[in-house]
Amino acid sequence: MKVLVIGTGAREHAIVHALTRDPTVEAVVAAPGNPGIDQVALCRDLPGGITDGAAIADLAEELGADLVVVGPEAPLVAGVADVVRERGIACFGPSAEAARLEGSKAFAKEVMAAAGVPTAMAHVCSAVDEVAAAIDGFGAPYVVKDDGLAAGKGVVVTDDRAAALQHAQDCLDKPGGQVLVEEFLDGPEVSLFCLCDGTTVVPLAPAQDFKRVGDGDSGPNTGGMGAYSPLAWAPTGLVDEVLARVAQPTIDEMARRGTPFVGVLYVGLALTARGLRVVEFNARFGDPETQVVLARLDAPLGALLRAAAIGQLDEQPVLRWRDEHAVTVVIASEGYPAAPVTGGPISGVEEVGTGPEAYVLHAGTRLDDEGLLVSAGGRVLSVVALGADLAQARKRAYAAVDRIDLPGSHHRTDIALAAQRGEVVV
To answer: Can you tell which superkingdom this protein's organism belongs to (predicted)?
Structure first.
């Protein structure tokens, strides 16, 4: 099987890394990829960008690809998967209509209500006075979400009423801008990826990510600063409960609407004092959780994704998982998330090696005119490590981080620390 992976980030690098371990996959091509992916797979340019569905379909035909895997959310919402499928090529990723589960938080709430999925109470607002009334009704902490795509940074959770209103105004100023004001959900958050073929749902292993930029969950939200899996503290039966109460009802509702969901339904959960609640849906693998979940997957990823793409997930064997714990730590550019500084030289990546204990996945990197590795985005690298327990995985991850130099860069030092200490309470 030949697989074409669309995207440029560490999530796509993790997918490519896992695909190369699948004996049923004979070749992996990434478009446009990144310098790290280029070391393990062929990379091809996409002059029209990752939302150019026709060009992606043309490339898939040229390569004779048996499967196209669309990594990021923007091309999915733009309908790239639809164009690829229209050419008769299997595609792992939802249609534009089904991707509205991520593209519009208001639509996701509508589907959850129809499917009876437990989630936070919310008001959809299109004017700032509506937002003010809603946040005053819920009280602090205030939760204000951009209705559309915002690269993981569209949510503000704050006790500062003025900051909440300012974020709402910034979102409303966009064309067609809407925001959701939600009740604050207490309790630890969990990410669960569910592979879907329109009918059948196969859950992967839960993970937890760290969205705030600083230690102790301080500072603004980011696209994610690290993650770990498995979650030893998670309640017994959590995955089965999410499957029964959230994922399967949602997939059934999407099918009932005539817009079957094929791809990854990312379920973001809060385990509250009143039980589990859905914080958000995404329509693709999450970054950085993908890095740790796929590090532990001991099943052929290519076969699994193709089965989802062609409606045969129910024929797949039970998934196998490695016993080790996995931790990923994100190295971010100076100034991230507000104003990332790019172009800085990166050194030490080759010192980490390629595993199996620790390895580096590229996110925002490029080669300069002299062929040297430099930063090209806010989140630059994901360092992944495996260990017999969280303590060993953390030790290996941070030892690898210490070998890498990017002037002005920063990272969190407390990824998975509370879980290692047994301090996560449900």
So the answer is: Bacteria
d(CA 38, CA 1): 19
Write down all domains in the chain, each with its CATH number in brackets. Answer: 2-92 (3.40.50.20), 122-182 (3.30.1490.20), 187-315 (3.30.470.20), 325-420 (3.90.600.10)
pLDDT in tens, 231-267: 999 999 999 999 999 999 999 999 999 999 999 999 9
In single-letter form, the type of residue at position 412 comes to: R
- Give residue 148's pLDDT band: very low, low, confident or very high (50, 70, 90): confident
Band (175; pLDDT cuts 50, 70, 90): confident
Model-wide pTM > 0.85: yes
Alpha-carbon distance 75 to 51, whole Å?
4
Rounded CA gap, 352 and 402, in Å? 10
CA distance 175 to 49: 22
Alpha-carbon distances of 218 from 4, 223, 295, rounded to whole Å: 38, 14, 28
Residue 22 has pLDDT above 90, yes or no: yes
| Residue from 89, 1, 85, 7 nearest 44 by CA | 7
Beta strands in 323-410 (DSSP E): 325-332, 358-362, 365-367, 373-375, 379-387
Distance CA(225)–CA(283), nearest Å, equals 20
